[in-house]
Amino acid sequence: MVLAAVGQLCSTASLAANLAQCQTLVRKAAAAGAKALFLPEASDYIGSSPAETISLARSVQDSEFVLGLQKEARLAKLHINVGIHEPASNGRTKNTLIWIDDKGSIIQRYQKVHLFDVDIKGGPVLKESASVEKGMEILPPFETPIGRVGLSICFDLRFPELSLALRRQDAQIIAYPSAFTVPTGRAHWETLLRARAIETQSYVIAAAQAGPHNEKRVSYGHSLIVNPWGEVVASLGDEYEEPQIAVADIDLELLAKVRREMPLLRRTDIYPQV
């Protein structure tokens, strides 16, 4: 077994302040003996408007946030999965998830394919597509010190087709870094995460933003790690006072046992393969 850490923070429009929060989480994860740290969606910043979201985007080569985390990964000898923004060619941004290895190199990049456009009665009106370019492909799962990881982001959680496609490519762990709203978090967060773990027989690691980012936006928190049997094996709350981590062993023998003893033999002769 090997230890994974899930981190929780409250990003604002200050990249420097957000980097400081993430540096704290890296040090906590390293001290706990974790081999990989999973950080939330938009860890670099959360703007208060589409215009601010676009204006703050930097390439990874020019981002003080990304460069700082690459340095931390190298010093701590820790793999880091983190959600960031990158400029898009059409004047929007990309909602991206990058994997930084323990040498500080960016070795994987996934761009969010399902964008969060909602109008919640009595809650927030959010239109991610106003400032964000949608991704156009699923990133194949890749080898890491904790197992084969498949990447997705936040609203992707509501689409089992994506997690099933990752499972079909032998993902053992699926990451869902997120910034869930409070109303949708209360209603669906844990239920959806446990469902994705059960139906793919995989570990699910969901790092979450928590608390008030600005006067317009508050995130639900409740970062979780769920095992392939659907059990929550690590969790955090919704209150934000300081950056926090939770850790859990990734037991690939348990994963193999679940898949062996309850094989999910799909009837692709009568419905399409996802």
How would you characterize this protein structure?
It is found in: Cytoplasm. It is a single chain. This protein is an alpha/beta fold. The protein has one domain (2-261): Carbon-nitrogen hydrolase (Nitrilase/N-carbamoyl-D-aminoacid amidohydrolase, 4-Layer Sandwich), CATH 3.60.110. The protein has helices spanning 15-32, 50-56, 64-76, 160-168, 182-200, 252-261; strands at 2-8, 36-38, 79-87, 93-100, 106-111, 117-119, 125-127, 132-133, 142-144, 147-151, 173-175, 203-206, 210-212, 218-220, 224-226, 232-235, 244-250. A hairpin with a 5-residue loop joins strand 3 (79-87) and strand 4. The radius of gyration is 17 Å and the shape is globular.
Q: What structural class results from the helix and strand content? A: alpha/beta
User: What is the name of the CATH superfamily?
Assistant: Carbon-nitrogen hydrolase
State the distance separating the first and last CA atoms. Answer: 30 Å
What is the CATH T-level topology?
Nitrilase/N-carbamoyl-D-aminoacid amidohydrolase
Q: Biggest sheet: strands, sense, closure?
A: 7 strands, mixed
Mean pLDDT: 96
Query: Any idea what the CATH architecture is?
Result: 4-Layer Sandwich
Basic shape:
globular
Helicity level: 25-40%
Quaternary organization: single chain
InterPro entries: C-N_Hydrolase, C-N_Hydrolase_sf, Nit1/2_C-N_Hydrolase
Family: Belongs to the carbon-nitrogen hydrolase superfamily. NIT1/NIT2 family.
Protein name: CN hydrolase domain-containing protein
Subcellular location: Cytoplasm
